[in-house]
Amino acid sequence: MTQPATSSATMNHSNQRSGTLDSGEAMAAAKSVPLIADHVQQIPRSGIRDFFELVQNAKGVISLGVGEPDFVTPWRIREATIYALEKGKTTYTSNLGLLSLRKAICEYVLKSYGLEYDPTSQTLVSVGVSEALDLALRAVLNPGDEVIYHEPCYVSYSPSIALAHGKPVAVGCRAEDKFAVRASEIEKAITPKTKVLLLNFPTNPTGGTMSHEELESIAALVRKHGIWVITDEIYSELTFEGEHTSIASLPGMIERTLFLHGFSKAFAMTGFRIGYACGPKDWIEAMMRIHQYSMLCASIIAQEAALEALKNGHQDMLAMKEEYQRRRDFVVRSFNEMGLDCHSPRGSFYAFPGIQRFGLSSKEFAIRLLEKENIACVPGSAFGPNGEGFLRCCFATSFKELQIAVERMARFAQELESNRTGNQR
Ligand SMILES: Cc1ncc(COP(=O)(O)O)c(C=O)c1O
User: Fold this and answer.
1) Distance in Å, CA 130 to ligand 1 centroid
2) Are residues 295 and 251 in the same domain?
3) Do residues 321 and 307 both lie within one domain?
4) Which atom, in ligand 1's list, is nearest to the CA of 129?
5) Cα–Cα separations (whole angstroms), residue 404 to 52, 173, 393, 398
6) What spacing in Å lies between the alpha carbon of 15 and ligand 1's midpoint?
7) How confident is the model at residue 2 (pLDDT cuts 50, 70, 90)?
8) Which residues, listed in sequence order, are joined to residue 69 by a DSSP beta bridge?
9) Same domain for 251 and 220
10) Are residues 251 and 355 in the same domain?
Protein backbone atom coordinates (compact mmCIF):
# COMPACT_ATOMS: atom_id res chain seq x y z
CA MET A 1 0.00 0.00 0.00
CA THR A 2 2.75 2.45 0.95
CA GLN A 3 4.87 1.69 -2.07
CA PRO A 4 2.72 3.24 -4.85
CA ALA A 5 1.85 6.26 -2.67
CA THR A 6 5.52 6.98 -2.08
CA SER A 7 6.45 6.52 -5.69
CA SER A 8 3.64 8.80 -6.90
CA ALA A 9 4.63 11.45 -4.36
CA THR A 10 8.21 11.23 -5.64
CA MET A 11 7.02 11.48 -9.22
CA ASN A 12 4.91 14.62 -8.51
CA HIS A 13 7.78 16.13 -6.64
CA SER A 14 10.17 15.62 -9.55
CA ASN A 15 7.59 17.02 -12.02
CA GLN A 16 7.13 20.10 -9.90
CA ARG A 17 10.86 20.72 -9.94
CA SER A 18 11.16 20.33 -13.70
CA GLY A 19 7.79 22.13 -14.33
CA THR A 20 6.69 19.45 -16.81
CA LEU A 21 3.74 17.02 -16.90
CA ASP A 22 4.34 13.33 -17.23
CA SER A 23 2.95 11.85 -20.42
CA GLY A 24 -0.26 10.55 -18.77
CA GLU A 25 -1.05 13.95 -17.30
CA ALA A 26 -0.22 15.72 -20.56
CA MET A 27 -2.58 13.42 -22.45
CA ALA A 28 -5.33 14.04 -19.90
CA ALA A 29 -4.83 17.81 -20.16
CA ALA A 30 -4.91 17.74 -23.96
CA LYS A 31 -8.04 15.61 -23.92
CA SER A 32 -10.03 17.64 -21.39
CA VAL A 33 -13.53 18.02 -22.74
CA PRO A 34 -15.47 21.31 -22.55
CA LEU A 35 -17.00 21.57 -19.11
CA ILE A 36 -20.30 23.28 -19.80
CA ALA A 37 -23.03 21.52 -21.81
CA ASP A 38 -23.71 23.10 -25.21
CA HIS A 39 -27.35 23.89 -24.52
CA VAL A 40 -26.44 25.56 -21.22
CA GLN A 41 -23.60 27.47 -22.87
CA GLN A 42 -26.18 29.01 -25.17
CA ILE A 43 -28.44 30.27 -22.37
CA PRO A 44 -27.99 34.02 -21.98
CA ARG A 45 -27.73 35.62 -18.56
CA SER A 46 -30.99 37.21 -17.48
CA GLY A 47 -31.24 40.86 -18.58
CA ILE A 48 -32.78 41.61 -15.20
CA ARG A 49 -29.83 40.18 -13.29
CA ASP A 50 -27.33 42.11 -15.42
CA PHE A 51 -29.21 45.30 -14.82
CA PHE A 52 -29.47 44.72 -11.10
CA GLU A 53 -25.78 44.26 -10.75
CA LEU A 54 -25.56 47.89 -11.81
CA VAL A 55 -28.27 48.83 -9.32
CA GLN A 56 -26.51 47.11 -6.43
CA ASN A 57 -23.49 49.34 -6.85
CA ALA A 58 -25.55 52.53 -6.79
CA LYS A 59 -26.58 54.23 -3.52
CA GLY A 60 -30.04 55.58 -2.57
CA VAL A 61 -31.82 54.00 -5.51
CA ILE A 62 -35.60 53.68 -5.62
CA SER A 63 -36.26 50.39 -7.30
CA LEU A 64 -39.29 49.71 -9.47
CA GLY A 65 -37.30 46.80 -10.75
CA VAL A 66 -37.77 43.55 -8.92
CA GLY A 67 -41.11 41.79 -9.46
CA GLU A 68 -41.78 41.25 -5.81
CA PRO A 69 -44.41 42.59 -3.38
CA ASP A 70 -43.15 45.26 -1.00
CA PHE A 71 -45.53 43.83 1.61
CA VAL A 72 -44.17 41.42 4.15
CA THR A 73 -46.03 38.09 4.13
CA PRO A 74 -49.26 38.58 6.14
CA TRP A 75 -48.73 37.93 9.83
CA ARG A 76 -51.19 35.04 10.10
CA ILE A 77 -49.15 33.16 7.48
CA ARG A 78 -45.86 33.88 9.20
CA GLU A 79 -47.41 32.83 12.50
CA ALA A 80 -48.61 29.53 11.03
CA THR A 81 -45.06 28.95 9.80
CA ILE A 82 -43.59 29.59 13.24
CA TYR A 83 -46.24 27.36 14.79
CA ALA A 84 -45.39 24.55 12.37
CA LEU A 85 -41.76 24.76 13.45
CA GLU A 86 -42.75 24.88 17.08
CA LYS A 87 -44.69 21.66 16.62
CA GLY A 88 -41.59 20.07 15.17
CA LYS A 89 -42.77 19.91 11.57
CA THR A 90 -39.34 19.56 10.08
CA THR A 91 -39.58 16.41 7.96
CA TYR A 92 -39.93 15.44 4.31
CA THR A 93 -43.48 15.22 3.01
CA SER A 94 -45.01 13.05 0.30
CA ASN A 95 -43.33 13.82 -3.04
CA LEU A 96 -46.61 15.30 -4.22
CA GLY A 97 -46.85 17.53 -1.15
CA LEU A 98 -48.96 17.36 2.03
CA LEU A 99 -52.33 15.82 1.25
CA SER A 100 -54.03 18.50 3.38
CA LEU A 101 -52.45 21.20 1.19
CA ARG A 102 -53.33 19.39 -2.05
CA LYS A 103 -56.94 19.13 -0.90
CA ALA A 104 -57.00 22.84 -0.02
CA ILE A 105 -55.47 23.68 -3.42
CA CYS A 106 -58.14 21.64 -5.22
CA GLU A 107 -60.92 23.36 -3.26
CA TYR A 108 -59.43 26.78 -4.01
CA VAL A 109 -58.94 26.06 -7.71
CA LEU A 110 -62.50 24.75 -8.01
CA LYS A 111 -63.96 27.78 -6.25
CA SER A 112 -61.82 30.41 -7.98
CA TYR A 113 -61.44 29.00 -11.52
CA GLY A 114 -64.18 26.36 -11.82
CA LEU A 115 -61.55 23.63 -12.32
CA GLU A 116 -62.00 20.21 -10.75
CA TYR A 117 -58.89 18.16 -9.97
CA ASP A 118 -58.19 15.09 -7.88
CA PRO A 119 -55.80 15.94 -5.02
CA THR A 120 -54.27 12.46 -5.03
CA SER A 121 -53.36 12.17 -8.70
CA GLN A 122 -53.74 15.53 -10.42
CA THR A 123 -51.98 17.93 -8.06
CA LEU A 124 -48.29 18.43 -7.34
CA VAL A 125 -46.85 20.92 -4.85
CA SER A 126 -43.65 22.45 -6.21
CA VAL A 127 -40.84 24.81 -5.26
CA GLY A 128 -42.56 27.83 -6.78
CA VAL A 129 -44.08 28.10 -10.23
CA SER A 130 -40.47 28.14 -11.41
CA GLU A 131 -39.95 24.48 -10.55
CA ALA A 132 -43.41 23.49 -11.75
CA LEU A 133 -42.70 25.04 -15.15
CA ASP A 134 -39.34 23.32 -15.41
CA LEU A 135 -40.88 19.95 -14.53
CA ALA A 136 -43.78 20.49 -16.89
CA LEU A 137 -41.51 21.16 -19.86
CA ARG A 138 -39.01 18.42 -19.05
CA ALA A 139 -41.85 15.93 -18.66
CA VAL A 140 -43.25 16.40 -22.16
CA LEU A 141 -40.63 17.79 -24.53
CA ASN A 142 -38.61 15.60 -26.85
CA PRO A 143 -35.55 17.28 -28.35
CA GLY A 144 -36.63 19.79 -30.99
CA ASP A 145 -40.29 20.01 -29.95
CA GLU A 146 -41.53 23.56 -30.31
CA VAL A 147 -43.14 25.61 -27.56
CA ILE A 148 -45.04 28.74 -28.54
CA TYR A 149 -45.27 31.57 -26.03
CA HIS A 150 -46.29 35.20 -26.20
CA GLU A 151 -43.68 37.92 -25.86
CA PRO A 152 -42.78 40.20 -24.06
CA CYS A 153 -42.79 37.55 -21.38
CA TYR A 154 -41.34 36.40 -18.10
CA VAL A 155 -37.57 36.08 -18.48
CA SER A 156 -37.40 32.38 -17.71
CA TYR A 157 -39.71 31.06 -20.44
CA SER A 158 -37.31 30.85 -23.36
CA PRO A 159 -34.36 29.49 -21.28
CA SER A 160 -36.59 26.94 -19.51
CA ILE A 161 -37.79 25.62 -22.87
CA ALA A 162 -34.22 25.44 -24.20
CA LEU A 163 -33.00 23.71 -21.02
CA ALA A 164 -35.67 21.07 -21.59
CA HIS A 165 -34.24 20.60 -25.12
CA GLY A 166 -37.24 22.27 -26.74
CA LYS A 167 -37.31 25.07 -29.28
CA PRO A 168 -38.72 28.39 -28.05
CA VAL A 169 -41.04 30.09 -30.56
CA ALA A 170 -42.06 33.63 -29.59
CA VAL A 171 -45.21 35.34 -30.82
CA GLY A 172 -45.15 39.11 -30.42
CA CYS A 173 -47.89 41.05 -28.63
CA ARG A 174 -48.67 44.67 -29.38
CA ALA A 175 -49.27 47.71 -27.21
CA GLU A 176 -52.30 48.58 -29.38
CA ASP A 177 -53.87 45.27 -28.25
CA LYS A 178 -52.98 46.03 -24.63
CA PHE A 179 -50.60 43.10 -24.99
CA ALA A 180 -53.25 40.44 -25.46
CA VAL A 181 -52.04 37.78 -27.88
CA ARG A 182 -53.85 37.34 -31.20
CA ALA A 183 -55.05 33.82 -32.04
CA SER A 184 -54.19 34.53 -35.70
CA GLU A 185 -50.53 35.16 -34.70
CA ILE A 186 -50.41 31.93 -32.73
CA GLU A 187 -51.86 30.03 -35.67
CA LYS A 188 -49.14 31.37 -37.97
CA ALA A 189 -46.49 30.03 -35.57
CA ILE A 190 -47.92 26.49 -35.37
CA THR A 191 -45.90 23.83 -37.21
CA PRO A 192 -45.96 20.02 -37.14
CA LYS A 193 -43.30 20.29 -34.40
CA THR A 194 -45.47 22.41 -32.08
CA LYS A 195 -46.17 20.56 -28.87
CA VAL A 196 -47.04 23.14 -26.24
CA LEU A 197 -48.55 26.60 -26.03
CA LEU A 198 -47.40 28.50 -22.94
CA LEU A 199 -49.70 31.28 -21.73
CA ASN A 200 -49.40 33.78 -18.89
CA PHE A 201 -52.32 36.09 -18.13
CA PRO A 202 -52.17 38.58 -16.51
CA THR A 203 -48.75 38.86 -18.09
CA ASN A 204 -45.40 39.73 -16.60
CA PRO A 205 -44.15 42.32 -17.76
CA THR A 206 -47.08 43.96 -19.58
CA GLY A 207 -50.09 43.40 -17.32
CA GLY A 208 -51.91 42.13 -20.42
CA THR A 209 -55.04 40.04 -19.90
CA MET A 210 -57.37 38.11 -22.22
CA SER A 211 -61.14 38.22 -22.39
CA HIS A 212 -63.21 35.06 -22.32
CA GLU A 213 -63.89 35.42 -26.08
CA GLU A 214 -60.22 35.92 -26.94
CA LEU A 215 -59.32 32.80 -24.98
CA GLU A 216 -62.11 30.90 -26.75
CA SER A 217 -60.47 31.50 -30.12
CA ILE A 218 -57.11 30.29 -28.78
CA ALA A 219 -58.77 27.22 -27.24
CA ALA A 220 -60.36 26.42 -30.60
CA LEU A 221 -56.94 26.51 -32.24
CA VAL A 222 -55.42 24.31 -29.58
CA ARG A 223 -58.16 21.72 -30.00
CA LYS A 224 -57.92 21.86 -33.79
CA HIS A 225 -54.16 21.26 -33.80
CA GLY A 226 -54.16 18.85 -30.86
CA ILE A 227 -51.47 20.71 -28.93
CA TRP A 228 -51.03 21.02 -25.17
CA VAL A 229 -51.25 24.11 -23.00
CA ILE A 230 -49.36 25.31 -19.95
CA THR A 231 -51.06 28.24 -18.31
CA ASP A 232 -49.08 30.21 -15.72
CA GLU A 233 -51.71 31.99 -13.62
CA ILE A 234 -49.47 33.37 -10.92
CA TYR A 235 -50.97 36.89 -11.22
CA SER A 236 -54.60 35.81 -11.64
CA GLU A 237 -55.80 37.11 -8.25
CA LEU A 238 -54.34 40.47 -9.20
CA THR A 239 -56.85 41.05 -11.99
CA PHE A 240 -58.20 44.56 -11.54
CA GLU A 241 -60.76 44.79 -14.30
CA GLY A 242 -63.15 42.16 -15.53
CA GLU A 243 -63.27 38.53 -14.53
CA HIS A 244 -60.19 36.37 -14.87
CA THR A 245 -60.82 33.30 -17.00
CA SER A 246 -58.47 30.34 -17.07
CA ILE A 247 -58.15 28.73 -20.49
CA ALA A 248 -58.31 25.40 -18.64
CA SER A 249 -61.98 26.11 -17.81
CA LEU A 250 -63.09 26.31 -21.46
CA PRO A 251 -64.80 23.32 -23.09
CA GLY A 252 -62.44 20.45 -23.87
CA MET A 253 -59.45 22.24 -22.35
CA ILE A 254 -58.99 20.79 -18.87
CA GLU A 255 -57.87 17.51 -20.49
CA ARG A 256 -55.06 19.25 -22.39
CA THR A 257 -53.99 22.02 -20.03
CA LEU A 258 -51.57 22.15 -17.15
CA PHE A 259 -52.57 24.83 -14.66
CA LEU A 260 -49.64 26.43 -12.78
CA HIS A 261 -50.06 28.67 -9.80
CA GLY A 262 -48.25 29.77 -6.67
CA PHE A 263 -48.18 31.97 -3.61
CA SER A 264 -45.32 34.34 -4.40
CA LYS A 265 -47.26 37.28 -5.79
CA ALA A 266 -50.84 37.46 -4.49
CA PHE A 267 -49.91 36.30 -0.98
CA ALA A 268 -46.53 38.08 -0.87
CA MET A 269 -44.64 34.83 -0.26
CA THR A 270 -41.74 34.94 -2.74
CA GLY A 271 -39.19 33.72 -0.18
CA PHE A 272 -41.25 30.67 0.78
CA ARG A 273 -40.69 29.20 -2.71
CA ILE A 274 -43.99 27.42 -3.01
CA GLY A 275 -46.29 26.74 -5.95
CA TYR A 276 -48.31 23.98 -7.55
CA ALA A 277 -49.41 22.31 -10.75
CA CYS A 278 -52.81 20.77 -11.49
CA GLY A 279 -53.50 18.85 -14.67
CA PRO A 280 -53.90 15.58 -16.52
CA LYS A 281 -52.85 12.57 -14.44
CA ASP A 282 -50.13 11.41 -16.84
CA TRP A 283 -48.54 14.85 -16.97
CA ILE A 284 -48.54 15.19 -13.16
CA GLU A 285 -47.20 11.64 -12.74
CA ALA A 286 -44.33 12.34 -15.17
CA MET A 287 -43.54 15.60 -13.39
CA MET A 288 -43.58 13.81 -10.06
CA ARG A 289 -41.03 11.29 -11.32
CA ILE A 290 -38.56 14.10 -12.08
CA HIS A 291 -39.42 16.04 -8.92
CA GLN A 292 -38.90 13.02 -6.62
CA TYR A 293 -35.32 12.60 -7.82
CA SER A 294 -34.41 16.27 -8.08
CA MET A 295 -36.28 18.18 -5.37
CA LEU A 296 -37.89 15.32 -3.45
CA CYS A 297 -40.55 17.64 -2.02
CA ALA A 298 -41.21 21.29 -1.29
CA SER A 299 -40.25 22.48 2.19
CA ILE A 300 -42.79 21.34 4.78
CA ILE A 301 -42.70 24.74 6.49
CA ALA A 302 -43.55 26.50 3.24
CA GLN A 303 -46.33 23.97 2.66
CA GLU A 304 -47.82 24.72 6.08
CA ALA A 305 -47.63 28.43 5.30
CA ALA A 306 -49.38 27.90 1.96
CA LEU A 307 -52.14 25.95 3.69
CA GLU A 308 -52.76 28.87 6.01
CA ALA A 309 -52.75 31.31 3.04
CA LEU A 310 -55.48 29.29 1.31
CA LYS A 311 -57.55 28.79 4.44
CA ASN A 312 -57.39 32.25 6.00
CA GLY A 313 -55.37 34.60 3.78
CA HIS A 314 -58.10 35.82 1.44
CA GLN A 315 -58.79 39.16 3.16
CA ASP A 316 -55.08 39.96 3.41
CA MET A 317 -54.71 39.22 -0.28
CA LEU A 318 -57.65 41.47 -1.16
CA ALA A 319 -56.21 44.33 0.92
CA MET A 320 -52.89 44.12 -0.94
CA LYS A 321 -54.68 43.96 -4.26
CA GLU A 322 -56.69 47.08 -3.44
CA GLU A 323 -53.49 48.95 -2.64
CA TYR A 324 -51.85 47.78 -5.89
CA GLN A 325 -54.82 49.09 -7.81
CA ARG A 326 -54.54 52.51 -6.15
CA ARG A 327 -50.84 52.60 -7.03
CA ARG A 328 -51.49 51.43 -10.57
CA ASP A 329 -53.97 54.25 -11.17
CA PHE A 330 -51.51 56.80 -9.84
CA VAL A 331 -48.51 55.50 -11.79
CA VAL A 332 -50.32 55.10 -15.10
CA ARG A 333 -51.88 58.55 -14.87
CA SER A 334 -48.50 60.09 -14.01
CA PHE A 335 -46.70 58.29 -16.84
CA ASN A 336 -49.20 59.47 -19.42
CA GLU A 337 -49.01 63.02 -18.06
CA MET A 338 -45.24 63.04 -18.49
CA GLY A 339 -45.50 61.80 -22.08
CA LEU A 340 -44.74 58.10 -21.58
CA ASP A 341 -47.47 56.18 -23.41
CA CYS A 342 -48.80 53.74 -20.88
CA HIS A 343 -51.85 51.54 -21.12
CA SER A 344 -53.53 50.70 -17.86
CA PRO A 345 -52.56 47.11 -17.00
CA ARG A 346 -55.70 45.12 -16.18
CA GLY A 347 -53.71 42.78 -13.99
CA SER A 348 -50.33 42.04 -12.30
CA PHE A 349 -48.31 44.78 -10.60
CA TYR A 350 -46.36 46.06 -13.59
CA ALA A 351 -46.76 49.16 -15.73
CA PHE A 352 -45.15 48.93 -19.16
CA PRO A 353 -44.80 52.42 -20.62
CA GLY A 354 -43.47 53.03 -24.13
CA ILE A 355 -40.30 55.10 -24.42
CA GLN A 356 -39.79 54.96 -28.21
CA ARG A 357 -40.30 58.67 -28.74
CA PHE A 358 -37.08 59.51 -26.89
CA GLY A 359 -34.96 57.72 -29.48
CA LEU A 360 -33.05 55.62 -26.94
CA SER A 361 -32.98 51.86 -26.59
CA SER A 362 -34.77 50.60 -23.48
CA LYS A 363 -31.41 49.65 -21.96
CA GLU A 364 -29.90 53.08 -22.61
CA PHE A 365 -33.02 54.72 -21.21
CA ALA A 366 -32.94 52.57 -18.06
CA ILE A 367 -29.21 53.12 -17.47
CA ARG A 368 -29.47 56.88 -17.89
CA LEU A 369 -32.52 57.02 -15.63
CA LEU A 370 -30.57 55.13 -13.01
CA GLU A 371 -27.47 57.28 -13.35
CA LYS A 372 -29.28 60.63 -13.43
CA GLU A 373 -32.22 60.10 -11.12
CA ASN A 374 -31.45 56.96 -9.09
CA ILE A 375 -34.56 55.18 -10.32
CA ALA A 376 -34.28 51.54 -11.35
CA CYS A 377 -36.71 50.13 -13.92
CA VAL A 378 -36.13 47.09 -16.10
CA PRO A 379 -35.46 47.63 -19.82
CA GLY A 380 -38.24 46.06 -21.89
CA SER A 381 -35.64 44.20 -23.96
CA ALA A 382 -34.97 41.96 -20.92
CA PHE A 383 -38.36 40.36 -21.72
CA GLY A 384 -37.45 39.45 -25.28
CA PRO A 385 -36.98 41.43 -28.50
CA ASN A 386 -40.70 42.29 -28.52
CA GLY A 387 -40.18 44.22 -25.29
CA GLU A 388 -37.82 46.72 -26.90
CA GLY A 389 -39.10 50.29 -26.71
CA PHE A 390 -40.72 49.76 -23.29
CA LEU A 391 -39.78 49.86 -19.63
CA ARG A 392 -41.10 47.61 -16.88
CA CYS A 393 -42.00 49.51 -13.73
CA CYS A 394 -43.16 47.44 -10.79
CA PHE A 395 -45.67 49.26 -8.64
CA ALA A 396 -45.45 46.78 -5.78
CA THR A 397 -43.44 49.57 -4.20
CA SER A 398 -44.62 51.90 -1.41
CA PHE A 399 -46.86 54.79 -2.47
CA LYS A 400 -44.39 57.27 -1.01
CA GLU A 401 -41.52 55.86 -3.07
CA LEU A 402 -43.70 55.79 -6.16
CA GLN A 403 -44.47 59.48 -5.69
CA ILE A 404 -40.77 60.33 -5.57
CA ALA A 405 -39.98 58.00 -8.48
CA VAL A 406 -42.64 59.53 -10.67
CA GLU A 407 -41.45 63.07 -9.90
CA ARG A 408 -37.88 62.19 -10.86
CA MET A 409 -38.98 60.33 -13.97
CA ALA A 410 -41.01 63.34 -15.09
CA ARG A 411 -37.93 65.55 -14.71
CA PHE A 412 -35.86 63.02 -16.66
CA ALA A 413 -38.42 62.74 -19.46
CA GLN A 414 -38.66 66.52 -19.72
CA GLU A 415 -34.92 66.83 -20.01
CA LEU A 416 -34.72 64.15 -22.70
CA GLU A 417 -37.55 65.81 -24.53
CA SER A 418 -35.93 69.25 -24.49
CA ASN A 419 -32.59 67.78 -25.64
CA ARG A 420 -34.38 65.99 -28.42
CA THR A 421 -36.32 69.02 -29.64
CA GLY A 422 -33.19 71.19 -29.17
CA ASN A 423 -31.24 68.81 -31.41
CA GLN A 424 -33.93 68.91 -34.04
CA ARG A 425 -33.84 72.70 -34.24
C1 LIG B 1 -45.01 34.99 -14.89
C2 LIG B 1 -44.22 34.42 -13.77
N3 LIG B 1 -44.20 33.10 -13.57
C4 LIG B 1 -43.48 32.55 -12.59
C5 LIG B 1 -42.71 33.33 -11.74
C6 LIG B 1 -41.90 32.66 -10.66
O7 LIG B 1 -42.73 32.39 -9.60
P8 LIG B 1 -42.30 31.59 -8.29
O9 LIG B 1 -41.81 32.60 -7.31
O10 LIG B 1 -43.56 30.92 -7.85
O11 LIG B 1 -41.25 30.62 -8.70
C12 LIG B 1 -42.70 34.72 -11.90
C13 LIG B 1 -41.84 35.56 -11.04
O14 LIG B 1 -41.63 36.72 -11.28
C15 LIG B 1 -43.46 35.27 -12.94
O16 LIG B 1 -43.50 36.59 -13.14
Assistant:
1) 6
2) yes
3) no
4) 10
5) 20, 31, 14, 10
6) 53
7) very low
8) none
9) yes
10) no
pTM of the model: 0.91
Q: 68-127 pLDDT, tens per residue?
A: 999 999 999 999 999 999 999 999 999 999 999 999 999 999 999 999 999 999 999 999
Q: What are 163-205's pLDDT values in tens digits?
A: 999 999 999 999 999 999 999 999 999 999 999 999 999 999 9
For residue 323, is it within any domain?
A: yes
Among 69, 140, 106, CA closest to 277: 106
In the structure, which protein residues have their CB atom closer than 6 angstroms to any atom of ligand 1?
A: 67, 128-130, 154, 200, 204, 232, 234, 262, 264, 270, 275
Domain span including residue 214: 75-312
Element (H, E) at 379: strand 378-379
> Which residue out of 133, 154, 258 has the highest number of ligand 1 atoms within 8 Å of its CB and is therefore the one to mutate?
154
Which atom of ligand 1 is nearest to 203's Cα? 1
Among protein residues, the one with the nearest Cα to ligand 1's atom 13 is 67
How far apart CA 419 and CA 425 sit, in angstroms, is 10
| Strand runs labelled E in 14-57 | none
154 and 213 in a common domain: yes
